[in-house]
Amino acid sequence: MPPIPIKRREVLLKQITAANRLDLVKTLLTARGHIEDRMMRAARNKTFATVRRIREGIYKDIQTEYVALQGNLDEWTKRSIRKTAKVFHGLSVEDLNLMDGDKAVIGFTKFSKKHLDDYFSRIHPFNAEKMAAVNVQMNPQLTRMLDTDVRALQRATVEAFREAQVAGMTSQERYKLLQGKVMDYADNPQSWAFIDRTGKKWSKGNYFNMLNRTVSANVARDSYNDTLISEDRDLVQIIGGVGSNSNEGCRAYDGRVVSLTGNTAGFPTLQDYIDAGGFHPNCVHTTVYVSDKFERGQRLIAEQEGEPKPVIEKPVSIAKTSTKKADAPNTNNQAPISKTEPKPEINKKNKQDSVEKTNKALANKETELAKVTNISSQRYIDEDVVDEKRKNKDYDVMVSPTFNIDGDPVRVILDGHHSMRAAELDGVKPVYIEQSTRESDKIALLEKGDIESFLESTWMDSDWYNVSTGKDYF
Ligand SMILES: [Zn+2]
After folding, report:
1. Which pLDDT tens digit goes with each residue over 305-316?
2. Cα of 90 from ligand 1 centre, angstroms
3. How confident is the model at residue 452 (pLDDT cuts 50, 70, 90)?
4. Of 191, 196, 199, 388, which residue is most buried, by most CB within 10 angstroms?
5. Ligand 1 mean position to 280 CA, how many Å?
6. CA of 349 to the centre of ligand 1 (A)
7. Burial class of 405 by CB neighbour count within 10 A (0 to 12, 13 to 18, 19+)
8. Is residue 237 within 8 Å of residue 300, measured between CB atoms?
9. Which residues of 244-271 are buried (b: 16+ CB within 10 A; e: fewer)?
10. 41-50, 186-195, 328-337, 447-456: which has the minimum mean pLDDT?
11. Long-range contacts from 433-437, C-beta under 8 angstroms, 24+ separation
12. How many C-beta atoms lie closer than 10 Å to residue 152's C-beta?
C-alpha cells in the first residue's frame, strides 16, 4: 500500500515556487533597469529642472515603464499558472492512478483550456477587468512605486533649487547639484528597496514575493482539486499538521475529510474549511485525495462520516494575522521523500560520437572555453552515486552549447553532476560533452534563442549557481 506522499507535495511546491520566483525576479530586474535608465536620462537633461514640460514628459516615460512592467507581470502570472497547474494536475492524475488504479480522463491540454483563464482572473481583482478589456487599472503596488519615484524626482528638483539659491550657485552649478541628486536616487531607488540590482537581495516580505507564493500555492491546490472534480472524485483530506501557532480553522480541520463540491453528504465542504480561515497566506495545508477503493481512504471515511462540522470559536481575521500565523513546520509521521534516482545514462553510441566531436571542438576553443561559466540548478548529490562514478572513472559531464547571459558566456550542466564531483575528488578534469538537439531536444530552445524557456526546461532543484564558486548565479 503506497503511503500518502505529503513530503513530495511539499517538495514539488517548493520547487515550482522557486522556479516561478526566478522568472519573476528576472521580469522585475528588466523593468528596474529600464526605469533607472529613464531617471539617468532625466539627470543628464539640462532642462529637466527648469522646463516643466520636460519634467512631465520624463514622469510619463517612467509611467510607461511601469505599465510595461504590469503587462510583463501578467505574462509571468500566466506562465507561472501554467507551469504550476501542469505539475499539480500531474500529481492528481498520479494519485488517482496510485489509489484507484484509474487513468484520468482529462489530459492537461483540456484541463488548462477549462481552468487556466479562471485561475488568472482570480489571482488579481484587476485581471477579470483586463480579460474583459475594460479600462485597465494599474496594480496598486506599481502605482505606489511610480508615485515614489516621481515624488523623489520632484523633491530632488525642489531641494536643488533651494540649496542653489542659499549658496548663490550659478545655473551650471545648480544643474550639477540636481544631476547628482537624481543619479543618487536612480542608483538606489527607494521604490525598489526590496531587491538589489543583481536580484540577490530579496526581502521575503515584499509584495512580489507574497504574490509569487500565493500564485504558486493557490494554483497548486486548485489544479489538484479541480482535476479530481473533473474525474468525478469528491473527497479529500486536509493535511499539513498543526503547530502551536496554527490558526483555529487549520487546527479544527487538520486531518478532516471534506467534500470538494458539497455533493457528498456527511462531510463538511472545502468551502467550510476556507470560511473557517483555511488556506490563509502562508498556510502549509493542502489536500490529498481520499479514495473509497483504497484502505486508508475507507478507514477515514468510516471514521469521519457524519461527524459534525468543526465549530470555530472566533473566526480569525485573516488579513491581520495571516503573516504571523504561519503554521508550524510539518512534523507528521509521513513517509520521507524517496531519494532522487540517478538519471539513466544516455545512449553510449551517441555519447561516443559526441566525445570525438567535442574533443576536436575543445582543442579549437580551449582559450575561449576557459572564460565560460558553468551553471547548474542541481545541488542534489548522492555520495553513493559519486563513489560508483569514481570506481568506474566516469567523469563524463553533459553540457549545453555555450550561450550568453548578459554578455557572459555560460553553459548549463545538463547531466553528470555526480561524475563532475567524482572528477573533482579524484583531481582530474571532467570530460565535458556538449549536447546537441540529437541528445536533448531542449537544446532546440537554445538554438531558437529562447534562453528563458531553455533554463526553465532544464531546471532541476535549486536556484541557478556558478558551479566553480558554488554561489548563486542570478
Ligand atoms: Zn493552515
Report:
1. 999 998 876 544
2. 23
3. confident
4. 191
5. 6
6. 52
7. middle
8. yes
9. eebbbbbbbbbebbbbbeeebeebbbbe
10. 328-337
11. 433/351, 433/354, 433/355, 433/358, 433/396, 433/397, 433/398, 433/399, 434/354, 434/357, 434/358, 434/361, 434/399, 434/400, 434/401, 435/354, 435/398, 435/399, 435/400, 435/401, 436/354, 436/401
12. 19
Contact 264, 234 (CB under 8 A): yes
Q: What mean pLDDT is reported for the chain? A: 83
∠ Cα 269 270 273 (to 5°): 95
Position 8 confidence tier, pLDDT thresholds 50, 70, 90: confident
Within 371-434, residue ranges assigned H as helices are: 383-391, 417-426
133 Rama sector, left if φ>0, alpha if ψ -120 to 50, beta otherwise: left
Pairing of strands 408-415, 373-376: parallel
* Ligand 1 centroid from CA 379, angstroms: 29
What whole-number distance in Å separates Cα of residue 27 and Cα of residue 4? 36
273 CA to centre of ligand 1 in angstroms = 10
Q: Which helix (H) or strand (E) holds 17?
A: helix 6-44
Amino acid letter for position 345: E
What b/e readout covers 363-399, taking b as 16+ CB neighbours within 10 angstroms? eeeeeeeeebebbbbbeeeeeebbeebbeeebbbbbb
Cell 552549447 -> residue? 401
